[in-house]
Amino acid sequence: MVVDFKIRRAPAYRVASLSWKGPWNEARIRAQFDRVSKWALAHGLRTGKWVFREPGTRAWEVAIEVRGAAHSDGPIRVRTLPASSVASVVFDPNVVSPAVVYHGVNDWLRWRKRDKTIRSVGGYREVYDGDPWRNPKAWARTEVQVVVRK
Questions:
Q1: Residues whose CB is less than 8 angstroms from the CB of residue 46 and which lie 6 or more positions away in sequence, other chains included
Q2: What φ, ψ does residue 20 adopt, rounded to 5°?
Q3: Biggest CA-to-CA distance, the chain
Q4: How far apart are CA 40 and CA 47, in angstroms?
Q5: DSSP-based helix, strand, coil % in the chain, nearest 5
Q6: Rounded CA separation 27/35 (Å)
Q7: pLDDT category of residue 2 using cuts at 50, 70 and 90
Q8: Mapped to the 3 state alphabet, what secondary structure does 19-50 carry?
Q9: pLDDT tens figures, 71-108
């Protein structure tokens, strides 16, 4: 499998999201994704991309792109992640270790800052085409995006 880094324009995502603070816990991440997914289904919304972010230290956010008239409800916030320039890499975690991909993108971005292609680096997010636990195709096309400022 070829793993290649590129800078591209990511579209805006209108998402329903849940945030929390605490230690990394994959079971909790999966449970929060399920909670947002069930909320979207109960409100009759079509879903798209699934996004996982770490907006701060030990802070986590799961978000599912929603299409249709949606409004925040209780702990679930509906908001728009703005369109932005991102460094992007698509890979299969069963073939290439995520640790290798994250290390590679960090080094690649360091060199892009040195050669003045980009000014600074923002937050990381993982983007899936659907539920990565139930859809093997979504898992096999994991995309890591890093917001960059040119």
A1: 66, 67, 68
A2: -160, 165
A3: 49
A4: 7
A5: 25, 45, 30
A6: 12
A7: confident
A8: EEECCCCHHHHHHHHHHHHHHHHHCCCEEEEE
A9: 998 899 999 999 999 999 999 999 999 999 999 999 99
